[in-house]
Write a structure and sequence with these properties.
240 residues
Amino acid sequence: MKNLRLLCGVAALALAPGVSHADEDRLSGSMSFNHDAFFGTNPFFGMAYDMGNGNDLTFYGISWGTGAGSEWGQWTEFGIGMGFEAMDGALYVNPQLGFTSGSLLSSGAAGEGVVGDGIVPNLTVNLDDNGWEGQLYAGWYKNLQDTAEDDGTTLEYIHYWLNGGRQFGDYFSAGVHFEELRLSGGSNVDSQDGYQWLGPYIQVAKDNVGLRFSFGTDLTDDSDSFSQNDFYKLQFFYSF
């Protein structure tokens, strides 16, 4: 989805007093209100600053603490990256480096929330080409601090998704979404499946605003995974 994970470069303006109106026109932003079967509500906010050389300076923020993240020290993610177009503008590629604050990665949600709980190298690639749409996201959530007790553990996760579909008519599109979350390890824990979601999505969008609903099944064995829900995800997005 072209506007779903647009990230931001607002810091470039904050560091430059007396920015002209022409410079302000280089700034674009987006927000996405997301709610799914595992994380609950996790709104995303971002902006991108056009650097004038074909690249964007991008920042983003995710408020995980409004969903399941409220039990992880009000888990919060903030990051910075660079965005650029490829394949004559059909692809938008955005490598990023994020940082979390909270307790999930640093103590397995057993300790207090800390700034710099973890680091999140990640990549987003958006497709928008002649009615075809799609997105790839992949991120590695690795602890930066170890505040776990002697019998506790830090945690690491791999989170990625891939979706693609076709627009039909002026306002509608549909496609397929696959997403996986996996506990990849930690200081005192083995890897474990979280979920592997697979199913269709339907989307209604006009100009810079849209609504998407994705649903389906979890391919993992519930007895061996830490998520037992079916797959359902609701997204409202807006760009400006």
